[in-house]
Amino acid sequence: MNPDHPCIVQRDFTVLLEMGLPGSEWARSQLQIYAELVKSPSAFHTYHITPLSLWNAAALGWSAEDIQNSLYSMSRWDIPRDLLNDVEQLVSRYGTLTLSRGMKEDGGIKTGKANSYTIGDRLILAAETPALLNELLTKQELKQLGLLRVDEESASVPPENRGLLKQELTRLGYPVVDTAGYLEGNQLSFTLGKGQTKLQLRDYQVKAADAFEGADGLGGSGVLVLPCGAGKTVIGMAVMNRLQCEVLILTSNTTSVRQWVEELKQKTDIPADSIGEYSGQKKEVRPITVATYQILTHRRTKDGDFEHMKLLSERKWGLIIYDEVHLLPAPVFRATADIQATRRLGLTATLVREDGCERDVFSLIGPKRYDMPWKELERQGWIAQVDCVELRLPMTAELLERSMRAEGRQQYRIAAENPIKLEAVRSLMQHHSGLPTLIIGQYLDQLRTLAQELGVPLITGSMSQTERVRWFDAFRKGVIRTLLVSKVANFAVDLPDAAVAIEVSGSFGSRQEEAQRLGRILRPKSGENKAYFYALVTENSKETDFAARRQLFLIEQGYEYAVRRFSVTEAIGSRDAKPGDRGKKKEA
DNA sequence: AAGTCCGTAA
DNA sequence: CAGGGTACGGACTT
After folding, report:
1. Which residue has the closest alpha carbon to C6 C1'?
2. What span, in angstroms and rounded, lies between the C-alpha atoms of A522 and A246?
3. Within 374-403 of chain A, which residues have Cβ less than 7 Å from strand B?
4. Which DSSP symbol is given to A495?
5. Is residue A173 a contact partner of residue A335, using CB atoms and an 8 Å limit?
6. Through-space separation of residue A588 CA and nucleotide C2 C1' in angstroms
7. What is the pLDDT of residues A394-407, one digit of tens each?
8. Which residue approaches C7 most closely, CA to C1'?
9. How many Å does it take to go from CA A464 to C1' C11?
């Protein structure tokens, strides 16, 4: 124990990390692996060690001892003995239950007590100790899944309940290592790159694909977490390439469907007519099929079921890719429980769900296999270095009065629409004049006011696609330097990259949204490779708390928000400089 | 017969 | 919370 160490480890699974000490950065990178950031006010960041965070670390190969040693190495004081024991116990649970096809290691069929059962196609759930199995067999939820005792340490289960069993056991606190293997799926041979030009994979892209494959080459389910701009589709293709099979790719929207299709045509030698789009517009089922989550979850009639869900078993897919797996809707979870014999790859930039279904991602898609911190990608120069600033704006007396009269949920909006934000935006635009700038917000009223006052074009959902593309092109060419965008910025794949992002308002505490918006300025920049992110927040308001929550994911990734105050005098200063600035934007 | 636009639903 | 995307059927156009 060492008074200079940055962490205070508490009995309740909380770790306090003091920032700004020599060991702080290293501690943060350690905690990122087996803990979750829950609060980050000023000097102390609060992390939580949860069963799930421990199991994900275990799946990455961390033992209880590794984690304990890591905690020792950064802890300021003695670590509560009981906590160390609990960590030991939780981590060791990963691996005490395995699911397999009724084979023994020597390859022979496991028969158990003579004539006591027939294995048939049933899967074998093996526990490390008889006591554990006994305990599980008392659980009603598991009996309902057809769990039958085979011998002292194992039970059998019908293969169709493979997913539900894992989901239930994870909920009960006993994660299962699934070694029951996968169906091979229809074969499809192809190479990465076209003709002579091979697709050059980056170092970490190869590592990510390796991690999915597993050291034994038997892997085939799990999640790869990579920042925006890391080339998730390329990694997907690298995995596909190793498996050489037919693949179903699920994505969150049609633009992204088209993007997958385009990239596959561009970067592989798979014939164009072997790649299909399955969406509202087209219903092509080809050896490589790209579909939206939406179409799978769509119900035509009120009583009807999910008629498109059969796509999951329509062909013998050798792999299903879940792009942006953090957005996976509940019905697709349910359907995924039924197809556990198919390989599953989840891709995401933020493995956080605001609905708390991380556990289902873990049990039904698979554990986290690879996680590249955003800052690491930045260090390697693949994405721009971003300066994040939380710009705090005063609450005027008038605003405060309106806020006091309003209901709780209206108060947030009043703070978010603080009119001083206009002056702040003006001042930031002036400060970064010449750099491509996106102003992103959530309330159309606010955005329209800004558009009018600043003379900047506004893109919202109601603007037709063709008109959007026109503005995007003008922005890309540098004809216009600034764009105002609504929530379309959260999804539009074709939104051009910028060097400055100014967030004027956002949905409550969405960590995903914040990450997505930062992602808009990450493409590498010529010259210094720098970009600037500003979150405009009204001081002492409902907005302050939500802003802090939004930032958690990025802070976990190593970003730091410098807090600055925007004063009214500054606002007046920028007003003086307004005419020239305005004139420049007007020509847009 | 096929494409486009629009309102609705969840 | 407000806003946006998606799928789909029906009306209308080509």
Report:
1. A294
2. 33
3. none
4. P
5. no
6. 29
7. 998 889 999 999 88
8. A280
9. 20
Rounded to whole angstroms, the distance from the CA of residue A305 to the C1' of nucleotide C11 is 28
d(CA A414, CA A418): 6
C-alpha–C-alpha distance, residues A297 and A299, integer Å:
6
Residue A351 in tokens: 């493995």
Residue A120: the pLDDT is 56
Share of chain A above pLDDT 90, in %: 80
Our measurement of CA A381 to C1' C4, in angstroms, reads: 33
Task: Write out the two tokens for A291.
Answer: 């579909």
Which range (A47-51, A60-64, A436-440, A572-576) has the least confidence? A572-576
Give burial (CB, 10 Å; 0-12/13-18/19+) of A189.
exposed
Distance of A300 CA from B9 C1′ (whole Å): 10
Nearest nt to the CA of A459 via C1' is C4
Grade residue A1 by pLDDT with cuts at 50, 70 and 90: confident
pLDDT for A389 equals: 97
Smallest Cα–C1' distance to nucleotide C2: which residue has it?
A: A443
Instruction: Please list the residues that pair with A109 across neighbouring strands.
Output: A103
- The per-residue pLDDT of chain A, averaged, comes to 90
Contact flag, residue A299 CB and nucleic strand B, below 7 A: yes
At A168, give phi and psi (nearest 5°): -65, -45
Distance A287 CA to B1 C1' (A): 29
* Tens of pLDDT, residues A414-435: 999 999 999 999 999 999 999 9
Task: Check if residue A302 sits with its Cβ under 7 angstroms from strand B.
Answer: yes
Over residues A131-152, the pLDDT tens digits come to: 999 999 999 999 999 999 999 9
User: For residue A110, is pLDDT > 80?
Assistant: no
Q: What is the pTM of this model?
A: 0.92
DSSP of A262-314: HHHHHHB---GGGEEEESSS-B---SEEEEEHHHHH-BSSSS--BGGGGHHHH
